[in-house]
Write a structure and sequence with these properties.
Low-confidence stretches: none
Number of helices: 5
Number of strands: 6
Shape: globular
Largest sheet: 4 strands, mixed
Radius of gyration: 16 Å
Structural class: alpha/beta
Strand content: 15-25%
Amino acid sequence: VRTARELSREVMVVGRAVAPAEWPGDLKAAFLADAGEAFGGPVGGVMTALENSRGAVLVLGCDMALVTVETLRALLAAHEGAPAGTRATVVVSRDMDGEVYAEPTLAVYTPEILPRLREMMRTGRKSFQPLLEENWVCRWEVPAEAAGELLNVNDTETLAEAERVLR
């Protein structure tokens, strides 16, 4: 949230309706329940953010503790420079085999993608990977020097790795 606040005064935390008791008082954010929580995955969270915004939203997953403001600015610039009609600019990375993989919680989405997200929820499709094939989705491959910022902190091992980097 602190990283996002460097780019915008309006920051939403999707996933809970109220701030946790230990939330820092100086850290302003709107808290919203995830409309798709029962569905699972990021589809409902992205929908919730878009339905509560006045335009495009920059989505930053809470498990990406190492993402920098510079990377977010580069992503926003890529979205602004995307072809007309782009509904989303999604960060992509490569797995060990070189296959391209969408990072749906590090992306810029526009309200025009809402019908597709609703369809995904209705049909039970949770994966954003097929969206990479759509001509209205722009792929943005994070620069090699920033690839480590995509570390997903989801367990004690990756938390320790992130803490080492942040020291």
